[in-house]
Amino acid sequence: MIETLAKFHKYLPAIASPKLPPSLVDKFKYTAIILFLYFLMYHTFVIGVKGIDTNVNIISTLTASRIGTLLTLGIAPMIIASLLLQLLVKGGAIQFDLSNTKNQKIFQEAQVTFAIIIAIFQGIFSSVSMVGFDGFGPFVADSFRGNSIVFLIVLIQIVLGAVIVIYLDQISTKYGLTSGISLFIAAGVSYSILSLLGYLMLDEFIGIIPNLLSQAGIDRLQFIIIQFIPILTTFLAIYVIAYIQSYKLPIPINIAGQSRKIELPFFYLTTIPVIFSSALLFIFYQLGVSMISVPGEGLLVDIVRIIGGVLYILGPVVHSYNMSEYIAILFTAKTPILGLPEYLHLIIHIIAMALLSMVFGVIWAETTGQDGKSVAKLLSNNPNISLEGYRRDPRLLERKITEYVDGLIRLSSFTIGLIAGIGDALLVLGTATGILLMISIYDRMIPQMKEFLKIYYPPLIKILGE
Predict the structure, then answer these.
(1) 17 burial class (0-12, 13-18, 19+ CB within 10 angstroms)?
(2) Residue from 324, 275, 371, 322 nearest 83 by CA
(3) Can you tell me whether residue 253 is helix, strand or coil?
(4) Which of 10, 130, 280, 404 is the least crowded, having the fewest Cβ atoms under 10 Å away?
(5) In contact, 137 and 129? CB cutoff 8 Å
(6) Rounded-to-integer distance, Cα 352 and Cα 358, Å
(7) Are strands 258-265 and 248-255 parallel, antiparallel or unpaired?
(8) Burial profile 275-309: b = 16 or more Cβ within 10 angstroms, e = fewer
């Protein structure tokens, strides 16, 4: 399968690798151009579509997408292609050796081909949901209503946008500061935070500044203070996540008789577990809303609605960043079908996020060979490595390393899910999951940024500090 997909890659345009490593200035230039093109596509709506809700949700955050624009699919085709192929290979469903450079190149080419195939299928589903095959979809532009050609027009634009993103990712990976996937997610989350901040500050009805300029009063002052909560919790979330991410778990070992430490980051699996759990719980919410609204009567319909009610409470509490309205919903409203208070719905969602993140963390680690047993096997193959304070024994090494690593996987995955759930409950701008992703990405880019400033703008680095 991998080789077959890679064969089709030769018929596609290719981004050549640089003959010499690009300079830091060139990396910044390419990154700036790529970001400009990304945001240009982000604000370019496809012809034939109108009236689509483009509000940010967890799916759009994770896929750096915006429905109804050239970025309707975002990086979703690349993520799906990469995850599926990696899981199939590392899970043993497809026999393919990734240890040599030649096969790695073949695998990358297969990913590009597979991502384009996925983009075509996703584009078809997105186009049908927006304009329909016959031009009578819910979001078709008036000038195209009833004209079946609009389906093809929208499909071509959406797929073309996805293909452009795939190639921008390759350019960014080879010539920029980081991969396009990381760059687009970080840019999308940053933009989301800034746009929501502007909304909270400037909106005519709930904005802090318009309310400050209006007639004063104790009620107005209380409203303004409450509206500051999402801004404060966002800064708090950034601080807490950055602090926890800097923590390392040391594993004391001996290498050829010398004491050493293997330091594992607390977020050992980065943000993979919470990405899966956030996306799944949001899908549960959407599915729950659909099932609750199923028309008709009878036992089967009642069962479907009850299942929908359960899925609904596992999902997030949807809000519009109006704190007064959000607080009122939490303490006065009840969930459909099951009739639970919304604050209880919120608590259930946070617990579900944490537990599901832990489950996904364990599954992902075992599937990709990052679990304790795999790490211990890797270390035990070296005859010079032993645990500090213990004699050389492969079985003992495996048991202790497994305890360290598997314990870390469960704890870190649970913690990251808990942080994401609590952050969303406190209306963190850009979603807590988005901030987790953004910080982990910026953390990898900061050393290059510091180097750039030290070389070209030394006074600025002195002002900012190390």
Answers:
(1) exposed
(2) 275
(3) strand
(4) 10
(5) yes
(6) 10
(7) antiparallel
(8) bbbbbbbbebbebbeebbeeeeeeeeeeebbebbb
Minimal CA–CA distance to 155: which of 137, 136, 128, 135?
A: 128
Instruction: Give the separation between CA 301 and CA 424, rounded to whole angstroms.
Output: 32
Kindly state the helix (H) or strand (E) to which residue 165 belongs, with its residue range: helix 149-175
Question: Which parts of 179-243 are beta strand (E)?
Answer: none
Q: pLDDT for 109-148, tens place per residue?
A: 888 999 999 999 999 998 998 888 888 888 889 888 988 8
Residue type, 186: A
pLDDT tens digit sequence for 362-395: 888 887 778 888 887 777 776 667 666 565 666 7
Helix axes 76-90, 342-368, angle to 10 degrees: 50
Nearest to 450 by CA among 69, 8, 16, 24: 24
Nearby residues of 243 by Cβ (< 8 Å), 6 or more positions away: none
202 and 213 Cβ atoms separated by less than 8 Å? no
Edge to edge, what strands does the sheet with 258-265 contain? Answer: 258-265, 248-255, 385-387
Give the chain's domains with CATH numbers: 1-177 (1.10.3370.10), 192-466 (no CATH)
Both tokens of 48, joined, read 């034939």
